[in-house]
Structure formats: structure tokens, C-alpha cells
Amino acid sequence: MDFRRWVLVGVGTCVALLPGNYYPSNMVDNQNWGAYSPYLPVAEYVAPPERCEITQLQRHGARDPTAGPAAKIAIAVSKLQNVSTYGDSSLDFIRNFTLDLGTNDLVPFGAEAYARYRELVSADNVPFVRASSSDRVVMSATNWTYGFSAASGLRFNPILSVIFDESANDTLRNSCDNIGSSDNQTDTWIAIYGQPIVQRLNSAIPGANLSSTDVYDLMALCAFESVATDSISDWCGLFDDEEWRDFEYEMDLDKYYSTGYGQPLGPVEGVGYINELIARLTSRPVNDTTQSNSTLDQSSVTFPLNRTIYADFSHDDQLIAIYSAMGLFKQTTPLDPTNPSSSGSNRTWITSQLVPFSARMVVEKMQCQYSSQDSEYIRVLVNDAVQPLNFCAGVTEDGICGLPAFVRSQSYSTSGGNGDWQRCFQ
Ligand SMILES: *[C@@H]1O[C@H](CO)[C@@H](O)[C@H](O)[C@H]1NC(C)=O
Ligand SMILES: *[C@@H]1O[C@H](CO)[C@@H](O)[C@H](O)[C@H]1NC(C)=O
Ligand SMILES: *[C@@H]1O[C@H](CO)[C@@H](O)[C@H](O)[C@H]1NC(C)=O
Ligand SMILES: *[C@@H]1O[C@H](CO)[C@@H](O)[C@H](O)[C@H]1NC(C)=O
Ligand SMILES: *[C@@H]1O[C@H](CO)[C@@H](O)[C@H](O)[C@H]1NC(C)=O
Ligand SMILES: *[C@@H]1O[C@H](CO)[C@@H](O)[C@H](O)[C@H]1NC(C)=O
Ligand SMILES: *[C@@H]1O[C@H](CO)[C@@H](O)[C@H](O)[C@H]1NC(C)=O
Ligand SMILES: *[C@@H]1O[C@H](CO)[C@@H](O)[C@H](O)[C@H]1NC(C)=O
Ligand SMILES: *[C@@H]1O[C@H](CO)[C@@H](O)[C@H](O)[C@H]1NC(C)=O
Ligand SMILES: CC(=O)N[C@H]1CO[C@H](CO)[C@@H](O)[C@@H]1O
Asked: Which cysteines form disulfides (predicted)?
């Protein structure tokens, strides 16, 4: 195979600037912290035969709890601090605990991208970068550009070119008015797994009167404090391995039923991004009738088509919608809110592997000579794991599929979501 040209397209959640961008060194695999997990590649990256173009989509990096969860965590902590004695001396740390989830060092994700894809970069072809407008997403994108620039010895200096206003429709943020919530499923499950933990803790800490949602908040506190301090928080020790698997399942349900396959209007929120991806991969203008901003997407300044690396920064719920619009991680049976093992060992919907902090989906385009004709192929990686793309006709065992077959497989998006986008506003 001749090396020709690459195009890379990536979307991601926040690149983490915070310690939670990478797995803290003293943490073991499979913390089961759902979307609050530090980034850990799911597989070791293996380069494809040749690379043409890259689109990278990434989630924001580790963050403090947003205001809502932070207030709930503070209430749960104060319930525990109000009791007069702890039955077990291992709980004494609670008395003097102060809630202080500061942020930390920049982790060089942009540097990793430069190291991996440097042959695609030149003075007139630096990565094209977009972000949704939340502070944590913008900071992730900016710090990615700094990391990229520093790794190149300041030769190539990408800038954040487009910041989407989250109060409007855009492809890096979900904005469907009629979308449902996952509360039914998560409330059902927390009432089941939370009860024994509530009883255990309330008997160890008489007077605390914790509820099952307090338990969830204290488990979330373990994750947040651990990623903020780059070491395992004392709170983590209050729960055993099975309880962590149950917590992870709550996160699995939450994402599946918020913007994933379990939410009728979830996947449609990924349609605009998939149509932009197809435009980049095929070098044709964006054809989308959903949430893309046509003013921006028709301009070569805000939507150039001749770049080799694109990097977009977004949120976990939006990454999930994009995975689901594309057909990634499709489950044979829906997740059962009363029973985590109902889908057996087939379940690949595990939130800590789908959207940990700094999660990223990368689409690599390559030009290979499998026959006498040149042909274009793609490969999709989520957190460095090559996806099987079994929805794409002719896909190889290595997850490489012809670009035309990939585009044909995306009919849900190319048809504009089969009316689901209109259902968002009716
Ligand atoms: C803890 O005690 C303080 C002072 O008695 C009280 O104001 C506060 O409401 C209590 N917090 C909880 C969560 O019960
Ligand atoms: C909590 O702080 C007080 C006052 O600073 C100190 O006397 C006490 O030993 C601390 N308790 C624990 C468990 O660290
Ligand atoms: C993109 O193509 C246009 C014209 O085809 C050219 O002027 C521009 O320099 C190219 N930009 C990059 C980054 O290659
Ligand atoms: C998003 O687009 C829909 C129609 O496609 C429109 O009804 C809705 O008001 C738009 N939302 C925002 C926030 O502009
Ligand atoms: C909540 O979930 C249960 C079990 O999954 C289902 O039977 C019920 O219809 C759901 N209720 C609502 C309001 O969606
Ligand atoms: C315990 O908390 C529940 C709410 O979760 C509340 O209704 C109840 O009054 C509380 N009991 C005591 C003894 O504080
Ligand atoms: C598209 O984006 C531009 C630039 O941010 C903005 O001015 C315009 O209002 C957006 N269009 C819609 C329909 O939201
Ligand atoms: C797991 O997948 C296999 C093969 O696709 C299927 O036969 C089996 O029924 C699945 N098991 C469950 C529990 O869904
Ligand atoms: C654009 O997409 C619509 C469906 O949403 C399709 O009918 C139309 O043919 C497409 N146009 C082009 C130029 O591909
Ligand atoms: C941790 C870190 O370096 N964060 C920086 C990320 O970039 C923003 C600017 O967009 C800085 O303000 C942060 O300090």
C-alpha cells in the first residue's frame, strides 16, 4: 500500500487540562466512575496502513462538579458532619473534610495529537479547531492548541477558530426541545442498589439519615475529589467493588436514556455533526437540515474543507448522541433499569469507556490501494479503540471500511433524522 494522504476528523469532550485528563498513576483500571472517570485509553493505539485526514471530537477535560451536583454533594457531606460520633474510626476523616475541588495542571493532549499525526501537518495546513461555548469546553480546546503548538516547537500554532453559541442550535451541543430524560430509569435503579448502602451507612453513622440520592452524590464526590487531587479520595473507601459496579450502571443507564439509543430523540442530536463529518471526508458542502448553522457551514472561513486535521470540542451527552447517530455501541437489548446483568456479557455500553473525561472519537481517512484502483477508506476510534463498524458494508476485521459504504450506512443522518428533528420542536 502506498502512503498517500490523511484526513483526520475528531470530536471529543473536553480535553482535560485537569489531572483527570489521564488516569492518576495510583488508580487501577475499571474504577467504574461513569462519566466522572479520568481518561484511560480503552485500547493501545495502532496506526492504520496509511492515514489521510483526521477528525477528532473530544469531551472537555476533568472538571469540578457543576453547580447543581456540587450543592447536592455539600448537603450529603453536611448530613454526615452533623452527627456527633462515627461508629467506625475509618470514617473520622469526614469530620474535618472540606469541599475543595480545585483544578490542576494542563495535561498535554494536544501534544499527543501532534506526536501521532505530525505527518499531516504543514505551515499552511494546521488543525482546524472548533468548540461549543461552555467555559470548560473552550478551555479544553484552547489548551489542546497550546499543547499541539508546544509539541511542534511552536512551528505549528492552531487556533480555536469557531466557538458555537450554546444558546442557539449547533452541532457540538444538544438542543432538542422535546427530548426526554433518563430520570425514570436512573431513579428506578438507584432505589434498588442504593437502599442496602443507605442502610449500611445510616447504621454506621446514626443520625445521618442519608437517602439513596445522597449515596449517589457521595460516590460522585469520590470521583471528583480523586481527579482534582490526582489521588484516590478517602470517600472512595466507603463503597465496595460491587457498589461501584452499581454506580457505573447508573451512569450507563443515564447516558443510554438521555441521548443514546434509549432516548427516542437522542440520536437525532448527532445528525448535524455526522453530516459535517461526511462533508469533511468527501470534500463536499454540508447538506443538513437539523441543528447545523448553515451560515457558518457554508463559509470556507468557519468550515474549510481542505484541511487534514479537524478537532472539535464538546460535551459527554453530545458525544453519546453522535455515537448513536452513527451506529456505534448499538446494544442487542435495551439496558434494563432493574437488572445490570440482563444483557449479559454482550453489553458494550459502559459509560466510563464511552465518555470519561477527555473522551474522544477520531475518524481517520486513508487512501489505500487494495486493488489497481485507488480507494478511500475510513476507520473510527473511540478512546483509541478501533470500532468494528458492523453497520458498514465490507468492513475489514481491522475496522477499515470504504468511504462510500460508510456514507451509505449513515442514511439516518443524510435523511435528516427521518423526521425526528421536527419532532423536537412540535
Ligand atoms: C447541619 O447542622 C446545621 C447546624 O445545626 C444545620 O443548620 C444544617 O441544616 C444541618 N445540615 C443538615 C444537612 O442537616
Ligand atoms: C480535626 O481537626 C481538629 C482541630 O483542628 C483536630 O483537633 C482533630 O484531630 C482533627 N480530627 C481528625 C480526625 O483529623
Ligand atoms: C484551501 O484551498 C484554498 C483554495 O483551494 C487555498 O487558497 C487555501 O490556501 C487552502 N487552505 C489550506 C489550509 O490548505
Ligand atoms: C433550533 O432549530 C429549530 C428548527 O429547526 C427551531 O425551532 C428552534 O427554535 C431552534 N433553537 C434555537 C435555540 O435557536
Ligand atoms: C418508567 O420505567 C418503567 C420500567 O422501565 C416503565 O414501565 C414505565 O412506563 C416508565 N414510566 C415512564 C413515565 O416513562
Ligand atoms: C430523614 O430524611 C427524610 C428525607 O430524606 C425526611 O423526610 C425525614 O424527616 C428525615 N428524618 C429525620 C429523623 O431527620
Ligand atoms: C449562526 O451562527 C452565527 C455566528 O455565530 C450567528 O450569528 C447566527 O445567529 C447563527 N444562526 C442561527 C440560525 O442560529
Ligand atoms: C449475545 O449475543 C449473541 C450473539 O449475537 C446472541 O446470540 C445472544 O442472545 C446475546 N445474549 C444476550 C443476553 O443478549
Ligand atoms: C441533501 O439531503 C437531502 C435529504 O436531507 C437529499 O434529499 C438531497 O438530495 C441532498 N442533496 C445533495 C446535494 O446531496
Ligand atoms: C490548566 C491550564 O493551563 N489551564 C489553562 C487553559 O487555557 C485557559 C485559557 O483558555 C487558561 O486560562 C487556563 O489557565
From this structure: 52-368, 222-236, 392-401
Say which CATH topology domain 8-423 has: Rossmann fold (3.40.50)
Classify strands 401-402 and 375-382 as parallel, antiparallel or unpaired.
Answer: antiparallel
pLDDT exceeds cutoff 90 at 170: yes
Q: Between 137 and 19, whose confidence is greater?
A: 137
Ligand 8 atom index nearest CA of 342: 13
Question: Annotated catalytic, 124?
Answer: no
Question: Which one of 230, 252, 312, 316 is the catalytic residue?
Answer: 316
Q: What does the mean pLDDT of the chain come to?
A: 84
71 lines ligand 1 (CB under 6 A): no
* Any atom of ligand 8 within 6 Å of the Cβ of 345: no
Q: Is the dihedral of CA 96, 100, 105, 106 positive or negative?
A: positive
Share of the chain above pLDDT 90, in %: 48
pLDDT band at 129 (very low <50, low <70, confident <90, very high): very high
Whole-number Å distance between alpha carbons of 219 and 301: 45
Q: Which ligand is nearest to the CA of 161?
A: 7
Average pLDDT over residues 321-347: 93
Given a contact cutoff of 8 angstroms between Cβ atoms, the answer to whether 339 and 189 are in contact is no
| Residue 417 confidence class, pLDDT cut points 50, 70, 90 | very high
Catalytic residue among 60, 170, 217, 254: 60
- Interstrand relation of 385-386 and 375-382 (parallel, antiparallel or unpaired): antiparallel
Q: Which amino acid is at 294?
A: S
Atom of ligand 2 nearest to the CA of 96: 1
**Nearest residue by C-alpha to atom 11 in ligand 7:** 293
315 is catalytic: no
Domain ranges across the chain = 8-423
Chain segment 204-231, per-residue pLDDT in tens = 888 999 999 999 999 989 888 887 777 7
CA–centroid distance, residue 192 to ligand 2 (Å): 36
